């Protein structure tokens, strides 16, 4: 069981005051992780080849692993969504194995394509929009993260 809890709270401050929202959040936290939500396992396909993984060799060099060992480590991670934010569909995933944890890049890179598989520190995500990032780009995914049909990945 992870040692963290994450909940997303949406409320209308004109219809509910902050104290009531806090009470409701504390009740949810007291119930324990996952008490009100069923987990759903999702499969995300990733290609780690060539131009689709421009930082793979640098991650390998920095960690003392070979590129295939970085890929194997990434695939061995037990990922869990811990936060949504920053951009539409950005699901921050905890669970990056210690062997490939890297700090953020010193400077962001512009024009990173949607579908890029990114890692930084202990987190991973699949970008949903073309945008700049300071995370390490280790692959690309054709899996649609944002969809117009509920329940479909």
UniProtKB/TrEMBL annotation:
Keyword vocabulary terms for this entry: ATP-binding, Hydrolase, Nucleotide-binding
Any Pfam family the entry gives: CT_C_D
Keyword Nucleotide-binding: yes
Superkingdom to which the source organism belongs: Bacteria
Domain Carboxyltransferase, residue spans: 2-153
Name of this chain's protein: Carboxyltransferase domain-containing protein
Classification via InterPro entries: CT_C_D, Cyclophilin-like_dom_sf, PxpB
PANTHER family membership: 5-OXOPROLINASE SUBUNIT B
